[in-house]
User: Which sequence fits this backbone?
């Protein structure tokens, strides 16, 4: 029996079966319940919107501090039509993408090293545990000294926020790989690369995707902080600029955009995570 066939049996993959599970489409009978849950989730935002409208009509706060919902909507339409909002959002998303690419690669490398090698874990784990205790804001003074306040500062600071979730999820995912799968690799004398690609990565993928989800959300939150601190473009910069000019309508548009994009990220990555979690091997 070949090595590949033995691994297929260990991974309980039937011949001709796809390596990745198929996406299940909900039946029509599930749709009313799904729409019902969505409807319940909309109730609270609608109540807040109604309260906001009442507060502006009765002038509980001056219009300079609490603009009308219709005025904020007009501002949103104007910013979308002019391309101003899309331009700043594109800059922010580009920063997040580069940071996730760099920080994710570093985090995956650290996580796989600690999970697959006891020697690497002995060298890396104490320092990594100390590194993970520092919040992103604590790194900003050091980053400013080394990188100034240009684009490198923003990318490096967001990257730091990404490394820890990726590394921790990967390390924990490797730790939870069933022992019988690792024994197959040892029996066939797999080297590090073969163990990584044929056993560890497929089995740990659901946990790794959970780290990807958390890392991307951390990157988005760190991006907002960095652009609030030092930036001349981006959605966070636009928010600070509008606040300084007391343009509360623009501030609210920026806040809504940040929340909406974060929600889209979380929903999309959560769907991918749940989809692949069914693939996780059971038992040890």
Assistant:
């Amino acid at each position: 029996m070949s090595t590949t066939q033995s691994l297929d049996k260990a991974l309980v993959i039937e011949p001709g079966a796809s390596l990745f599970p198929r996406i299940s489409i909900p039946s029509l009978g599930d749709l009313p319940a799904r729409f019902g849950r969505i409807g319940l989730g909309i109730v609270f935002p609608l109540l807040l919107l109604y309260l906001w409208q009442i507060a502006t009509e009765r002038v509980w706060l001056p219009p300079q501090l609490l603009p009308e919902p219709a005025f904020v909507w007009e501002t949103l339409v104007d910013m979308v039509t002019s391309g101003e909002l899309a331009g700043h959002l594109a800059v922010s998303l580009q920063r997040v993408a580069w940071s996730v690419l760099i920080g994710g690669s570093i985090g995956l490398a650290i996580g796989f090293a600690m999970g697959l090698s006891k020697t690497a874990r002995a060298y890396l784990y104490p320092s990594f545990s100390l590194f993970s205790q520092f919040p992103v804001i604590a790194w900003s003074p050091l980053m400013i000294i080394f990188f100034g306040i240009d684009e490198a500062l923003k990318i490096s600071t967001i990257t730091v926020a990404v490394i820890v979730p990726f590394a921790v999820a990967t390390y924990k995912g490797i730790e939870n790989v069933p022992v019988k799968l690792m024994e197959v690799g040892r029996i066939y004398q797999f080297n590090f690369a073969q163990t990584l690609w044929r056993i560890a990565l497929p089995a740990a993928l659901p946990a790794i995707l959970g780290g990807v989800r958390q890392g991307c959300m951390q990157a988005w939150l760190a991006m907002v902080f960095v652009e609030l601190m030092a930036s001349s473009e981006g959605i966070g910069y636009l928010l600070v600029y509008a606040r300084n000019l007391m343009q509360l309508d623009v501030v609210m548009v920026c806040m809504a955009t940040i929340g909406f994009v974060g929600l889209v990220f979380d929903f999309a990555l959560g769907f991918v995570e749940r989809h692949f979690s069914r693939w996780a091997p059971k038992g040890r």
Observations:
- Residues 65-277 form a domain with the MetI-like fold fold (CATH 1.10.3720.10).
- The chain has two domains: 27-60, 65-277.
- The radius of gyration is 24 Å.
